[in-house]
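Lab meeting notes turned into a lecture example. A postdoc, R.K., suggested we walk through two folding results consecutively so the class can see how the record format repeats. The first protein's sequence and structure tokens come next.
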Amino acid sequence: MTGTRESKSYVLDTSAIFAFWNDERGADQVERILKAVDSGTKIYFSFMTLMEGKYQLWRKVGKDMAEEFERMIRNLPLSRVDMTDSILNYAAEIKATTRLSVADSWIIATAIETGSALVHKDPEFEQVKGRLEIVPLPYKK
């Protein structure tokens, strides 16, 4: 099941947040989703997204930029979802049955647990297309 119109909630993957952060292709779609909170839409991010974004930025451009990224996320109208036993079980199943990374497995599990559409820029997520609603942004090259 794909599409964006019926969803009342979204999980933003790290790639979607980076698209917004870097004003990449798809940033406008993320911005529209963020503005939808005014009409009652719920927007979530996984605890793993924060870790993934911070370590990638820290490694590439330094700790200060990683901390700026965290401040930006905390100022967006997002709700962080932390680990639960149910999310752990979904993440383990996804990791065991696909070629996705551990981080991606946690993020997908968060979308499944919250009943949310997953917004992303990663073609690897096609592996779970039938398991949840996905909202692909223009894929990375």
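The second example is placed directly after the first for contrast:
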Amino acid sequence: MQWKTRRSEWVQPKDDARTAFDVDYARIIHSGSFRRLQGKTQILNLGDSDFYRNRLTHSLEVAQIATSLVRQFRQDNQDQPVFDHLPEDSLIQVLGYTHDLGHPPFGHGGEVALNYCMRDHGGFEGNGQTLRILARLEKMSGSEGADLTRRALLGILKYPIPFSKAHNPARAPRLMSGPSVVRLINRDQSKPPKCYLDTEQDVVDWILAPLRAKDRKTFCTPSPKKGQHSRARHKSFDCSIMDLADDISYGVHDFEDAIALGLIDQGLFKGAVDDVACASFLDFLKEKYPDQYGNNIYDRFVEQLFADGNTRKHTISRMVGFFIKNARIVENKNMDAPLLRYQASMRDGPARFLKALKDFIFASVIKSPNVQHLEFKGQTMVVSVFETFASEPKAFLPRDAYTLFEGSGKDVRIICDHIAGMTDAFLMKTYDRLFSPRMGSVFDRL
């Protein structure tokens, strides 16, 4: 029962038929931060099309895949000790729905921009902001945010090390030294470490309180890397399921969007993801559908990916199903607590295929000039709005945000919270109101 408790110590009424995790689910579905995901960039810029995925549709897909993984694990592990520790459907759906809540406008570009803006105030990281939203900022309780169960917050804690321990001072955010006319962020230097924010240390202490000291120490020990930020070594069992679902969605669904919008072609794909990388999936197709792929399974598979929408969707569905069926549970015997000991993983061959897809999307789509131009523009707008608000908060912050700012002892983190919670469109509207001569009205809602 200790994993079903809440920081507020609220106790569910006895006539409430829901489980504790059903309550978590309801709180997320009805939260403002969840709704705002519909207006935040996934990879491709919002406004170019209403077809491809945004943060909300991506989160729905992650939750669906994560639920399928759990059901596959239940089927495959009915007689194993791990069976009793698999999460309820409502819990794993909560993790899928919330895993990107903390990402600011313009995706990872906005994250880099806010980390630069917060360079002297504890930094910024999207996953850390997710925990902050759910534990403090959402309006479902007095001061505990959404006041989710302890197990839900453990699953949300994707990187269990604080910013102060993960951050490498040699990687401190800064401007580029080359340009002489414009001020540009050094985007590589300004990437944040993967962590939680130091402001949430008391929340993390509460989440991990039921664990033995040995498990807590192992779970929270960072892995240093020369010249880079330190990385977390471990995730909880529930988090590992969600993270695997996120990888599948990124590697397959974002890939599907790129094909549908003509950003990649067969030649580009074949040059990056060859038949060796696909070998495990090709073997699956040969065994499962012996009459559909002929002698050259790889070429037929690629043709189907780049065919009409119906054929492509059918192939994408087979890819997702293949990854789900090839997920497995492994044990980390250095951990005693079941919620840390068990981990979701992917078998070797399918893991190579998924990695090849993810690497291809990163190199060919995310790092393409088409996307990078818009990411750069988004970063510029985020920094401009932040610095304007911070220069004179009383003049520029909306009244409710300024009230919070004053009540916090003028903590700049409140300005960061306000901007991180904006949708792409609202950030652009705010930027236009501040900087575009012909935009804005005294009747605009701030």
